[in-house]
Amino acid sequence: MADKVPDLSPAEEAAARAKEKAEQEALPYKWTQTISDVDITLSVPGSLKGRDLVVEIKKHSIAAGIKGQEPIIKGDLPHAIHVDDSTWTLTAVPGGTKTVEIHLDKVNKMEWWPHAVTSAPKIDVTKIVPENSKLSDLDGETRGMVEKMMYDQRQKELGQPTSDEQKKLDIFKKFQEQHPEMDFSNAKLN
């Protein structure tokens, strides 16, 4: 559970954001995240090959760096990852350097990480603005629920019945057809 942050003045908020940015920029690696994964990037000399690196990805910890040197990143992860779905690659970049790109697949795909490793400074996860997701990214049940909500919202905006209201109307209409002897002129649906 995230700590409750008291309301800050705009100046205090700006100072907190600046401090957080400076702390993150001072790290010997860069990291980004989505709700489902974390990506960590380390810069290394361009002459290195994969065999010159040590990258250990475990369910609750990570260590990565150049063989024979202190790791560039090492520590406990704030939350568990799927080791089998986590990877690393060595990529050449312009300027004669290379990057080690580490992809961590989060076990809990419903929480933001305050830091890549627990020993690093935290970010304020309440300030994260998630990227827009596509309906195709969702599993079948969730997608169906979201599509129904979107349909119902459009229907309300048009002054039309929602899917649930339409079901009730259809059932009522069928009942009326089965019972023509009854007078439904004063009937109200709730």
TrEMBL record:
It is found in: Cytoplasm. Residues 24-117 form the CS domain. Keywords: Cytoplasm. One of its GO terms (biological process) is protein folding. The keyword RNA-binding does not apply. Pfam families: CS. PROSITE patterns: CS. Its main location: cytoplasm. Residues 14-24 have a biased composition (Basic and acidic residues). GO terms for molecular function: unfolded protein binding. SUPFAM superfamilies: HSP20-like chaperones. One of its GO terms (cellular component) is cytoplasm. The keyword Cytoplasm applies. Residues 1-24 are annotated as: Disordered. Required for nuclear movement. May interact between microtubules and nuclei and/or may be involved in the generation of force used to move nuclei during interphase. This is Nuclear movement protein nudC. It comes from Lasiosphaeris hirsuta.
